[in-house]
Amino acid sequence: MELHQLRYVLAVVEQGSFTAAAAAVRVHQSGVSTQVQKLERELGVTIFDRSARRVTLTPEGERVVAQARAAVAAVDEVAETANALRGLVIGSLRVGTVTGFAWGPLFDALADIHAQHPGVDIRVQEGESDDLISQVRSGALDVAFAAWSGDSPDGLEVDVVFDDVLVAVVARDHPWAARTRVRLAELARADLIALPVGTGARSALDRALSRVGALRAPRWEVASPTYVAALASRGLGVGIVSSTTALGWDELVTLRIADDEWGSKLGVLHRPAPMLAARAFLDRLDAARSGSSRSITPAAPH
Q1: Strand partners for 238
Q2: pTM strictly above 0.85
Q3: What radius of gyration do the chain's Cα atoms show?
Q4: What distance in Å separates the CA atoms of residue 187 and residue 259, rounded to the nearest whole number?
Q5: Which SUPFAM superfamilies match (predicted)?
Q6: Which member of 64, 141, 145, 152 lies 3.0 to 4.6 Å from 135 by CB, making a disulfide possible if both were Cys?
Q7: What is the spatial distance between Cα 218 and Cα 220, in angstroms, rounded to a whole number?
Q8: pLDDT digits over 225-259, tens only?
Q9: SS3 129
Q10: Using CB atoms within 10 A of its CB, is residue 41 exposed (0-12), middle (13-18) or buried (19+)?
């Protein structure tokens, strides 16, 4: 068993295909496939199910990958310790954010790391909160800017950036437009416009509706807050987003939910004892947050 074989396996898991994995590790696809097959023969188990269009892990592969990730992380930590002793920050930094998260301190911190530690390979990806949190737990991401509703995600270090209540938004000619609040029971009967499952606002909405026994699919499920605003402003339903997301939506009326302070939190999440590049990034992020007055872009979904 060779270390590069484990890295190839992890690349296939993270990229979703042998072709994308080969590009990520800068090796010909045949080389990646050959090495993975060689590892499978040596271990006596099939790691990947190659029958579908997208390569997936077998049940045995799930267990192998968990140990492979731990083994690679342990080796990387040895190298990082040596680099730290020499005052160097190198390696990789994988950051995930909710889609559309245009928050100044995040980009300031990324720019600082890029300028001060050019040896760090920085990658940023967007996605839905639940998936980002899972990737931090698995080690596929070092840091995530993600949202959740209720208790903080288990097993991760969490620093809350925004703590938002859930609000409803309606068109200015909507029957509720003259009001300031709406009850959960009323929302349960309305045509709702919501973000997808996996976002913090949707989790908060589902928890709130379950309180009144009315958990059901929204009339409209859209990927972007921009779509929520576009549909709601045309009278096609009642939009449900976080209060920060609704900032600046002058064409809509924002209503608080009267029954309780339902909401979601958006924060920075990472595993305990992050690697050196991630620690350096988190330090830069703290400095950027303390020195910045810039706020989140209202269109960022969480």
Answers
A1: 192
A2: no
A3: 22
A4: 11
A5: Periplasmic binding protein-like II (SSF53850), Winged helix' DNA-binding domain (SSF46785)
A6: 141
A7: 5
A8: 999 999 999 999 999 998 888 888 999 999 998 86
A9: helix
A10: exposed
